Amino acid sequence: MKQLKPIDSHFFYFESPNQPMMIGSLWLCDSSTAPGGRPRYRDILQYIGDRLNLTSYFRRRLEQSPLNLDDPYWLDDENFDLEYHIRHVGLPQPGDWRQLCIFTARTMSRSVDMERPPWEIYIIEGVNNVEGLPEDSFAVLIRFHHAYVDGKASFELTTALWEDSPTHEYGRRDRVEVAERRPTRLEMWARTTPQLMSQPWRSLRAGMTFARKSAELAIRLRKDSRPAQHKTPKTIFNVPVTPHRSYGSVSFKMPELKRMRSLVPGASLNDVLVAIIAGGMRRYLKLHNQLPAESLVSMCPVSLRPEEVKGDVGNLLSAMYIAIGTDLDDPVDRLAAVHRHTQWNIPLAREVLFDLTNSAGEMLPSYMRAMGVHLQNRASMTGRTPLFNTITTNVPGISGMQPKYFAGAKVCSISPMVPVYDGVAVTHGMLGIYDSMNIGILADRKVVPDIDVYVDCMKASYREYLESTEYSELTRAHMEKAKKAQMARLTGTDMDSPTLLLGRKSG
């Protein structure tokens, strides 16, 4: 049995009725590519069963320690029931995008049964009026508990359900079913007692690491990793959340996003996406007369998962906290600020904050960490100054144009979802597939009741960056043309003449 790490247990203890710690993704699937024109539900069920036989990770559930004195363990479920985890639903007609978003939001408002493997898949039929999809298509909503996986691991498990061909050989997969016997209470005590007895030594060792990394953090904050601002503003997003959610998604073209990087030398694709989101948040807050003078701060998870364990369960991530430039009106200045702050904070997240966070968790026994999370939840309702305003996470997606298929249906689009919780009422998940980058937005419905307006603000920010890119490219082209004309006047030669071009090549 594998025990939850402190960061995993944090998400487990953080669970409450108003903040289910669920991450998910929504797929749009084209049924017309499946053999026969449409996969039946029983075919989908068989398909998923075949694919899950390739890994045992989907069968893991939690086993509690005696009296909850220690963190839980992952255990293969000997009573695993696939049909419990696969739900078959239909959208009311006309089956448009709005109805699909409402269903997704309502589903993401609920948690899962932690006595079973903590994941669910919803097969959503009746998707008949969504742009870009033929009639009679379907969607797939897959959800995992955050204690089970982080964003990168959830996507790796998700891709285990895909194939490169619409033709599937039903029932012809190697069966790798591993079921463990449930341990007795005596056996669980035999595991828990040594853990409790060794806690003082582990606390001492973690305390030394914590002290060392705290000193390193203080030094870096005074030098190369100094914060861009010393205060995070309190916004309408930093309030206790309700159990209700709203959901929206927006898609951008990858080639256009890559062109936008030229606005700031050295800017990454992630910098561009964060800057677009910042521009959208700025527009939305300004529209509601709630834009603070200081920049909003985003928490951006940084994956530390090596390739050899990329499909394993659990969380291997750190975090960086960056001012995203919502105080800047000019989009290029905003992108430059995001790029600058990211460059400072990525090394800090990888080299300091990861060890600092882990050692802080290991210093305390699990029951004290559970109590600490409870106090943290209470503190988030007291109106204190927030540590950050939103979450923006980029999940590595699929590069290339090779189509992916689910039960024969082409996966046309996929949008991730990140949980919201007290003090963070809106989150953004980004994932690329084919030539598109999709941003899934999950929010508290009371805080963001007009999710369509929020999405429109993101689209307007994207157009703003696209216009800036086109203007920059046009300006560079004019400058290059003027430079050639000036050289021609100085040399008395046409810079584009065949003679001069030949001279350039021979030279």
From TrEMBL:
EC code: 2.3.1.20
GO biological process: biological process involved in interaction with host; glycerol metabolic process; response to hypoxia; response to nitric oxide; triglyceride biosynthetic process
Catalytic activity: an acyl-CoA + a 1,2-diacyl-sn-glycerol = a triacyl-sn-glycerol + CoA
InterPro entries in UniProt: Acyl_transf_WS/DGAT, O-acyltransferase_WSD1-like, O-acyltransferase_WSD1_C, O-acyltransferase_WSD1_N
The entry's keywords: Acyltransferase, Glycerol metabolism, Lipid biosynthesis, Lipid metabolism, Transferase
GO molecular function: diacylglycerol O-acyltransferase activity
Pathway, per record: Lipid metabolism; Glycerolipid metabolism; triacylglycerol biosynthesis
One Pfam family in the UniProt entry: WS_DGAT_cat
Residues of the O-acyltransferase WSD1-like N-terminal domain: 4-272
Span of domain O-acyltransferase WSD1 C-terminal: 314-464
Source domain of life: Bacteria
Enzyme class, broadest EC rank: transferase
GO cellular component: plasma membrane
Family from the record: Belongs to the long-chain O-acyltransferase family.
Identification of the protein by name: diacylglycerol O-acyltransferase
Organism: Halopseudomonas salegens
